[in-house]
Amino acid sequence: MYSEPEKRVMSRSGDECVVALTDQWYLTYDDLEWKKLAEECLSQMNLYSDETKHGFEHTLGWLNRWACSRSFGLGTRIPWDPEFLVESLSDSTIYMAYYTVAHFLHNEDMYGNNKTHRIRPEEMTDDEFTYWYPFDLRVSGKDLIQNHLTFSIFNHTAIMAKHHWPRGFRCNGHIMLNSEKMSKSTGNFRTLRQSIDEFSADATRFSLADAGDGVDDANFVFETANSAILRLTKEIAWIEEVLAAEASLRTGPPSTYSDRVFENEINIAVLTTKKNYEKCMFREALKTGCYDLQAARDEYRLSCGSGGMNRDLVWRFIDVQTRLITPICPHYAEHVWRELLRKDGLVVNAGWPTADSPDETLKAANKYLQDSIVLMRKLLQKQIMGSKKSNKKGAPAATLTEEKITGLIYVNEQFDGWKAECLNILKSKFDRNTGTFAPDGEILEALQKSSAGQDANFKKVQKLCMPFLRFKKEEAIAIGVQALNLKLPFGEIEVLQENSDLIKRQIGLELVEILSANDHDARAKAGSFSSLLDQNPPSPGQPTAIFLLR
């Protein structure tokens, strides 16, 4: 066979390459039966991303005969024609099989310097190979999907039985340095050894994990590595401080609302981080097992107030966090495990922590609480600034300050009126299987036929309905049909009342009252500010706060 390149080819030395008609061996990857086996193997593999899967499928579609030999250079001699070498992309496509026995042939020396052999090749059996093979995962670059990795699939299916076919490829991109391409010529370059010397092994691993998931090019950022040093150092200092002040921690089983929330967050971290590691999503694992978990700890510290943190929960947090970060920062984890927690053995042998099933309702309730506190704080600042402006214009001398303020928090736990009509219509027009809604025209027609549509002021109501319908549609598509429920899955008044002390501390209030917006007597407590309840009526998930001087 003979084929010419499609365009001019330049060598690495800068010389133009010319076509030479020479003898050549080809692998017939276009053989239909062989390709069918490769497709079968691919369909059973874990490829970790759709982009990787599509890349392999595309390659199987166009791959034809491949020139697999060359006459000089490094490589393995072709057994049936020793004059030629196997070219590099075709070579070593099943060398993973050699890993299963290499330790015998190299006498535990991975570099092959030890020439003494405990066992000769002819003395070996299949036991060691069959114990380890097939490989569950091979990690490689995305640029090899279109050749070397696809060849690996083909060659495994040609040589090995189905139960020894590859089970997974995890492909990644190249690595950038501080958002720019690594290049020796520009000086934007680091070796692994240089990075370890500059940042430490764990900070380097931390920054690499944070560099990105998927097949896109990863981005190693110096600032992230430096921040990792600070984060890990601060965490060690906090653990030492907590261990030294153990007597000040609250004892007994976890019992408060804050305890339950924190315990739930730990359970969530254990389960989600495990899933992220299994998917080789190291950035997500770092987020759920480090960033999010530490944020939950910080929130717990603030929520506990004068009662203090629960000792058992704090100890569990330290134990769990240490195990979760071990794959990324093993040296830090071993220091905490053995030197601070005084545990026996190595943390790498401690196993994955156990966890109960997460309470999604409790998680939603806590998010509601935290979001409400943020909203109330903004409303208070707005009201303080508003009262000061009014005072400058000749209003009464008494202004709303941040001292001795009472917060009236009004809650409406269920949608009613036209909002309830809209939600019921949307729920009836929502396909749970596809996560999509019926056409807008069909939804509008149902609205017109509803009791809200029969209202004499329908045009006015419609102006209110359309933005609400649009918002709820987007929310349902994002989180599911539960967004269309008339009530939240927890009692809002109960959550706010149980955390009234936290609300007072977080916002700086003297007194907090949690009230029903449907209670006439409760509305009367707002006095002249009760009109705010009409201007900004509370709804499920959106309480309205009014602040008064005591």
Automatic annotation (TrEMBL):
InterPro entries named among the record's database cross-references: Leu-tRNA-synth_Ia_arc/euk, M/V/L/I-tRNA-synth_anticd-bd, Methionyl/Leucyl_tRNA_Synth, RBD_LARS1, Rossmann-like_a/b/a_fold, tRNAsynth_Ia_anticodon-bd
Sorted UniProt keywords: Aminoacyl-tRNA synthetase, ATP-binding, Ligase, Nucleotide-binding, Protein biosynthesis
Annotated GO MF terms: ATP binding; leucine-tRNA ligase activity
Span list, region Disordered: 528-550
BP term (GO), one: leucyl-tRNA aminoacylation
Superkingdom: Eukaryota
Amino-acid biosynthesis in keyword set: no
Positions of the Leucine--tRNA ligase RagD-binding domain: 412-488
Annotated ranges, domain Methionyl/Leucyl tRNA synthetase: 16-225
Limits of the Methionyl/Valyl/Leucyl/Isoleucyl-tRNA synthetase anticodon-binding domain: 259-390
Family: Belongs to the class-I aminoacyl-tRNA synthetase family.
Protein name, UniProt field: Leucine--tRNA ligase
Taxonomic source organism: Salix purpurea (Purple osier willow)
